[in-house]
Design a protein that fits this description.
The complex is a heterodimer of chains A (about 525) and B (about 300). Chain A is an alpha+beta fold. Chain A is about 30% helix and about 20% strand. Chain A contains 16 helices and 19 strands. In chain A, the strands form 4 sheets. In chain A, strands 1, 8, 9, 10, 11, 12, 13, 14, 15, 16 and 17 form an 11-stranded mixed sheet that branches. Chain A has a 4-stranded antiparallel sheet with strand order 4-5-7-6, with helices on one face. Chain A has a two-stranded antiparallel sheet with strand order 2-3. Chain A starts with a helix and ends with a strand. Chain B is mostly helical. Chain B contains 13 helices and no strands. In chain B, helix 4 runs antiparallel to helix 5, helix 4 runs antiparallel to helix 10 and helix 7 packs across helix 9. The chains are: A alpha+beta (about 525), B mainly alpha (about 300). At the A-B interface, helix 1, helix 7, helix 13 and strand 16 of A face helix 2, helix 4, helix 6, helix 7 and helix 9 of B.
């Protein structure tokens, strides 16, 4: 009796406190794509974003001058055509006459002038301001030395937008596919102020509009009927569903709560492949996992020693055992997959691991290191089970060479602030993901002036080769050869120690069509359909 | 009584002030800042970002600005999610955490104390051992194990519950998180209740009540339970503060958009304003619930008076 009434009260009380809010009831006719994502976008203001998670959502909301298709190839976006001057410095874009914002107003050249100036305006504090640094005066505007009006952007008429570059930049169009180069509606920003980016208010010019954003839950995009190519857009509603826990995400996928998810719990990769078959998609992605090694610090300033260390690292083992083949063994800073470019591999990449180990031992013996005089090396890495296991594997692999590896783990912010402030370290874990499809994005981080040059690499021949490539801007083939020559120098110097190439890892339902694998892991929802 | 509550609220102000001050300077001691990430920013861009958020001011000025904003009810913008202010993030997330937390708390208190009373009444019999076994299991299995099991069994195998997500607040989406959050608490409350109930049943006033020939129902519910409930009340205060401010594990595994994850995430991201907001939120909840417990004591225990 007592128990019963207590239980009743419990059920009632819990029920009352839980019952609020209503079920989401979509109409059956709509095609809804539930798109799982591993992290939350930071911002939906194209000029304030930096991560791939924002890139996915913004690619659906906005149209830059040029865009990427389902295979990450460059296609016309808000611009229907363009011409490049003979010297490669003036780009003239013809905007679509039927291009409109979601509020019905036309997308004009003035919108692009405003957007490009806003990206560089110091007050915007755009993290990706550097994406337009090739434009005349862009960098000067960004560091406060020039006014936004002095930038090399111009509206010739309502539908003609002209950009003038400092020097020929063959990858400029690729850079323009980045979300930092998307336009924003000045009219709506003037009217709404900081609120312009809120769901229901955000004016966009892409295939979708922003309907809802519940942080850490979902972002709902609705098809934009005013989009110039709306007839070809099949999915009516895209729900980006943020689920950080990879294992939960697999269960949500299995239960049909998601049609795709953009990450995998890689430690379960073998089991997942057995269970889901070809719904698991793993393939090369434009990213490199490398170790920075202080090239200006004793004893690491000896290229021979750096080479011996690099040689002794068994990348096959690390890729297979630590990363369950979710990463590929890497031997160059620029990963394979960029059309027209052949990465310059480390010279030993074809040798067997045993030969490499022997050679490395010889070098260390020659340099006087051995059991009696061990070499001490510290690896710094940011918190992650896989980073730790990678470092542990390398510790084991370097032991036979008489190298005593110690490890230091810090959280991500501490790690990168230490690296960026040029702290005192031997070897540090780092990674680089392509912002655009060009070797420059990778090789640039080894340049002396780069803030990402964690190895403090400083080589005159390398700088010269990079400058030569830049000068060959107008001739793509020659430029690619020059870049490869620069990478050759970097690899021979062991300016960085490449360990692995990144892979994309998606799980995709067979019901989805148009979710094509590509090295940029770019999947615009406008090309996707669902059974 | 009112005077007592008023006095307690007044003393909360310096407490909060000390907490805010300590937290403000402690998070700044951590190396790195909100804008250090894998892709290093150029000094110019970094400076632009810091200027935008006033991070280039001297620390004492930032501190005074923060206090000033706080007194005007503003927690400031989130550095990592600049589309939202910290206030907006709480406005969206806190009601969700409170719903899940309150449900779990009610479930834990009612079910836990019922089980505890039943165990105490059947001391050293099979029922008692059963409850103790359940309670031990419940409090030793961590939530990060319980949650995936609930997902697997109720979600994937029986298809009764969704695996995760908030579903715009649908009842069915809350079952898993509430159960996961409540189970260990049910276990703890049951054990606490059993212990104090056994003690209470042996006390003089219960013997007197029995001697006076009161009915068993009256003896147990009106007299024994009332005396035994005190430890539960003291336990419930801090527990309520913890449950209502969200759980990072439950919210992450079930993909629930509450505020529980912000404490850890914000600290790792060096999202200073969000860290501070979370600290203030947890401090306020803790102070408030401790006060509620003390007030409740006066009602439950006739020996306690605040006049």
């Amino acid at each position: 009796m007592m128990l019963k009434s207590f239980l009743k009260a419990t059920v009632f009380a819990v029920g009352v406190s839980m019952a609020s809010g209503a079920m989401l009831t979509p109409s059956l006719a709509d095609m809804i794509y539930n798109r799982g994502m591993a992290a939350e976008p930071e911002s939906l203001d194209p000029h304030k974003t930096s991560t791939v998670y924002e890139a996915h959502v913004l690619r659906d909301l906005f149209q830059g001058l040029v865009m990427q298709d389902e295979k990450a190839n460059l296609i016309p976006g808000a611009a229907e055509s363009w011409t490049v001057s003979d010297d490669g410095t003036v780009y003239t874009f013809k905007l679509r006459s039927n291009g409109v914002w979601s509020d019905g107003s036309p997308v004009t050249a003035e919108d692009f002038v405003y957007a490009f100036q806003r990206l560089e305006d110091p007050a915007t504090a755009a993290e990706y301001a550097s994406m337009l640094y090739p434009v005349v005066n862009a960098e000067e505007v960004n560091n406060g030395k020039a006014k936004p009006e002095e930038m090399g952007v111009k509206a010739i008429d309502a539908n003609t937008f002209q950009v003038t570059l400092k020097a020929p930049t063959p990858y400029f169009l690729e850079m323009l596919t980045h979300q930092a180069a998307y336009p924003v509606s000045k009219a709506s920003m003037d009217k709404l102020g900081a609120d312009w980016v809120k769901p229901g208010k955000l004016v966009s010019n892409g295939a979708y509009t922003l309907a809802e954003w519940v942080p850490n839950d979902h972002i709902k995009l609705a098809k934009n009927p005013k989009f110039w190519d709306a007839d070809t857009v099949k999915v009516d509603v895209v729900n980006y569903i943020m689920t950080e826990d990879r294992s939960s995400a697999m269960k949500r996928f299995e239960a049909g709560e998601m049609d795709s998810y953009d990450d995998l719990p890689t430690e379960q990769l073998a089991d997942l492949k057995a269970k889901f078959g070809d719904q698991i998609r793993v393939g090369p992605y434009l990213g490199t996992y490398y170790f920075a090694i202080k090239t200006d610090k004793e004893p690491w300033n000896n290229p021979e020693l750096r080479n011996a260390i690099s040689m002794a690292i068994d990348r096959d083992f690390i890729a297979e055992k630590v990363w369950q083949n979710s990463m590929l063994p890497g031997y160059s800073l620029v990963p394979p997959g960029i059309e027209g470019y052949t990465p310059a591999m480390e010279t030993f990449s074809d040798d067997s691991q045993i030969d490499r180990e022997d050679k490395a031992k010889e070098i260390l013996a020659k340099l006087g290191y051995g059991p009696d005089k061990p070499l001490k090396m510290e690896i710094r890495y940011n918190t992650s089970e896989n980073h730790k296991n990678t470092a542990v594997a390398i510790q084991e692999q370097l032991k036979p060479l008489g190298i005593e590896v110690s490890m230091l783990n810090t959280d991500t912010k501490t790690h990168y602030s230490f690296l960026q402030q040029k702290g005192d370290y031997d070897v540090a874990r780092a990674g680089w993901i392509a912002d655009y499809k060009d070797p420059e994005t990778f090789l640039g981080i080894a340049r002396k002036a780069s803030g990402n040059n964690y190895s403090n690499y400083d080589s005159k021949p390398f700088e010269e080769a990079m400058d030569k490539a830049a000068a060959a801007g107008g001739k793509p083939e020659e430029r690619m050869k020059d870049l490869a020559a620069a990478e050759r120098i970097l690899m021979d110097d062991v300016g960085v120690i490449p360990i692995l190439y990144y892979s994309y890892h998606n799980i995709v339902s067979p019901k989805l069509h148009g979710f094509d694998d590509n090295v940029m892991d770019v999947h615009p929802s406008r090309f996707i359909s669902k059974d | 009584m009112l005077l007592y509550v008023f006095r307690r609220l007044l003393t909360a102000i310096p407490t909060l002030f000390v907490i805010v001050t300590l937290a403000f300077f402690l998070i700044r001691v951590a190396p790195g800042g909100p804008f250090n990430q894998e892709r290093g920013l150029s000094p110019v861009i970094q400076a632009n970002l810091e200027a935008q958020f006033g991070l280039n001011d001297p620390l004492w000025r930032q501190y005074l600005n923060y206090l000033n904003n706080l007194l005007h009810g503003s927690f400031g913008p989130s550095y990592n999610m600049p589309d939202f202010t910290v206030g907006e993030l709480f406005a969206k997330g806190l009601p969700i955490s409170i719903q899940i937390g309150t449900s779990a708390l009610i479930l834990a208190l009612l079910l836990g104390s019922t089980l505890g009373v039943i165990a105490a009444l059947n001391q050293n019999r099979k029922t008692d051992y059963g409850v103790i076994a359940l309670a031990t299991a419940g409090s030793t299995i961590p939530t990060f194990v319980i949650a995936p099991i609930i997902q697997l069994v109720f979600g994937l195998s029986w298809k009764l519950l969704p695996i995760g997500g908030w579903g715009d607040g649908a009842l069915i989406n809350k079952v898993g998180p509430v159960l996961t959050l409540a189970l260990p608490q049910i276990a703890i409350v049951a054990r606490l209740m059993r212990g104090s109930m056994i003690e209470s049943l042996r006390s003089h006033h219960i013997r007197t009540a029995r001697a006076l020939g009161l009915s068993e129902w009256s003896v147990v519910v009106k007299h024994a339970v009332r005396g035994a409930i005190l430890p539960i009340v003291s336990y419930a205060g801090p527990t309520a503060a913890a449950l209502l401010t969200g759980s990072i594990i439950v919210e992450t595994i079930f993909a629930i958009p509450g505020v529980g994850r912000y404490f850890v995430e914000a600290a790792l991201n060096r999202d200073y304003t969000l860290v501070m907001g979370t600290v203030v939120m947890i401090a306020v909840f803790t102070i408030l619930f401790n006060l509620i417990v003390d007030v409740l004591y006066a009602f439950v225990d006739p020996r306690v008076r605040y006049d």
